[in-house]
Please model this.
Amino acid sequence: MRKILSKISGLRIKRGLSRGKMAGAIGVNTSTYTKMEKGIYLISLSRLNQIAEVLEVKSDALLDNVDPEMDYLDEQYHLTQNRLEHVNQQIIAEQSKLINLYEKLK
Model:
């Protein structure tokens, strides 16, 4: 259980979320969330799913010996690749327009 709580706490801090913001996002008060994160209160599976959603990771990554950041980083990588492809297509279109204008000026 300590590994899970450590992952949750670490990801929360990396995401720049306070315990109060996490508590609000999952619908509990700050005191309750703090006790959950410290292991005083047990976290139900449904609550774990809510926490994972707020932290933008899969809940099974919190339970496994897998780095939960990898899912997030993989998703960010693919989003960046898609954006890059879109920008490349725009550049090609603009280059084509420029070539056409140049040809008209000849």
The radius of gyration is 22 Å. The mean pLDDT is 90. The chain has six helices and no strands.
